[in-house]
Amino acid sequence: MIPASHLLKRMMLALALSGILTAACVRGASPSSVVLLPGDATNVVSIRINDPGDFVWQLQSSVNFSNWTEVASLKLHNGAFQLGIPRDATPFLTFRAVFDPARQTLTSEVTNALQLPSSPFNYAAPVLPVKFLQQPILGQDNTPATNLTTDAGATLGRVLFYDRRLSTNQTIACASCHQQAYGFSDPRPFSPGFNGGLTARNTMGLSNARWYQRQKFFWDERAATLEDQVLMPIQNPVEMAMTLTALTNRLAAEPFYRDLFTQTFGTPDVTSDRIARALAQFMRSMVSTQSKYDVGLTMGFANFSAQENLGRQVFFGQIGSATCSACHGTDNFVPGAGIFNNGLENPYLDKGVGALTGQPADEGLFKVPSLRNIALTAPYMHDGRFATLDQVVEFYDSSVVAHPNLSAPLRVPPGNGPASGTPLRLNLTPTQKAALVAFLKTLTDTNLVSDPKFADPFNYGR
Fold it and tell me: d(Cα 100, Cα 60) in Å, to the nearest integer?
């Protein structure tokens, strides 16, 4: 007996000729079909099945809608599978996908569910610039001695990061909101959860999450460690809405997870602690050190344009009155021990840390993320209010709002302003503003956003 919820789930069958045709099937009812017309230039039919339940579907073909021939059994491993099959000489073909509860016998093994290299990627020992091995960056490393990154652990974390089983209806993964192409952030101001509800804050990028002296995570730093943080969206009623018990039971039922947990931890036991440790290892391995800025450090920035060099000087306060580096310091562009109020508004609609503590002195305090890959992580601020870097620069130049908690680098004079928080005005010229934006773009690491070791590892066919 199939659960009623399964009977109501829909799968989409897409069949591509020179274009895309789609038809929907409801499990338990007669599947819809699409007639394929002649004219396929490649002589290949591309068939895609989507189903969050990850079930086995029997693909069938027919020339007369009466007699059906089985083509293949398709096992979905992360909600989707695509199969390319050669067309024969028959001028008209119809395909359908049939769900048979008695034929759910194909299992997801490491060899068929995942596309992993024969030798694991190097996650444990990335090549780091010398400054990353020295203070103060060395002291920003939040990797605990109890959860050092290993190749096997980060590989498991990578699979978990992209797996939609982590949400209650198997439609949302960590990667749904932390997208590699956008520096592991979300181009939307707020991210949709499993049922379409929106997150309360903008999704923060994950580049160099390993380095943050305060060690805490989320905009309001409510998670004491990365290991704590990774389990919170899974249990959040808007984002993924899973219980940890339901999650561990679901993952333990998958043969490939039992293998990966064994490779990482020595036994196949799936626990929430192990899930947290593996996810944290993968996220800490998202190391960005190959930007134009990093190359420039080795050659006195001879690779920079005149505009980019001007922007660099503005950023570090060598020209003009900008105090960017006071909050985004070191070659990692993160703060030291501080957390800041940057004068977005007064009063704050979202009070940040103050919403947790109830203390007026904490109103408007938010975590300062790294600026690495900042050009990829729009929109900006905790509420995604700024769509472009130009808007961000303009805000800091002329629009910081007076607030009692306004941080010292943004007061007049910086660090010595009155308690009311008289805001600093940078008075940058249009040329300097454009140069500052150009410099921020040099922090983009195209290697990170294209590296296959950070990409979706699931096998979706071809």
Answer: 12
Assess contact for 149 and 284: CB atoms under 8 A: yes
In the sheet that 20-26 helps form, which strands lie side by side, from edge to edge?
20-26, 10-16, 44-50, 80-86
Q: How far apart are CA 392 and CA 388, in angstroms?
A: 7
Contact in structure between 36 and 95 (CB atoms under 8 Å) = yes
Q: If you compute the radius of gyration of the chain from its CA atoms, what whole number of angstroms results?
A: 26
**Plot region of 263 (φ>0 → left; ψ -120 to 50 → alpha; else → beta):** alpha
Q: Pick the range with the lowest mean pLDDT from 85-94, 138-147, 162-171, 411-420.
A: 411-420
The Cα-based distances of 225 to 92, 126, 131, 170, 185 in angstroms read 59, 22, 24, 26, 19
CA–CA gap between residue 257 and residue 249 (Å, rounded): 11
Phi, psi of 217 (to 5 degrees): -135, 165
For 146-149, which contacts have Cβ atoms below 8 Å and span 24 or more sequence positions? 147/227, 147/277, 147/280, 147/281, 148/124, 149/123, 149/124, 149/281, 149/284, 149/285
Beta strands in 304-462 (DSSP E): none
- CA-based nearest residue to 448, from 118, 111, 126: 126
Strands (E), 127-186: none
3-state secondary structure labels for all residues of 81-138: EEEEEECCCCCCEEEEEECCHHHCCCCCCHHHHECCCCCCCCCCCCCCCHHHHCCCHH
User: Which CATH number is 111-288 given?
Assistant: 1.10.760.10
The arrangement of secondary structure in 292-441, i.e. its CATH architecture, is: Orthogonal Bundle (1.10)
CA atoms within 13 Å, Cβ hemisphere of 402:
7
Give CA–CA dist 97/423, Å, rounded. 63
Q: Please answer whether residues 171 and 194 qualify as being in contact, where contact means their C-beta atoms are separated by less than 8 angstroms.
A: yes
- The string of pLDDT tens digits covering residues 322-372 is 999 999 999 999 999 999 999 999 999 999 999 999 999 999 999 999 999
- DSSP 3-state percent helix, strand, coil across the chain (nearest 5): 30, 15, 55
Do residues 74 and 97 lie in contact, with contact meaning Cβ atoms separated by under 8 Å? Answer: yes
Predicted TM-score (pTM) of the model is 0.91
Q: In what side-by-side order are the strands of the sheet with 93-98?
A: 34-36, 93-98, 56-62, 69-75
Token look-up 């960056």 returns 137
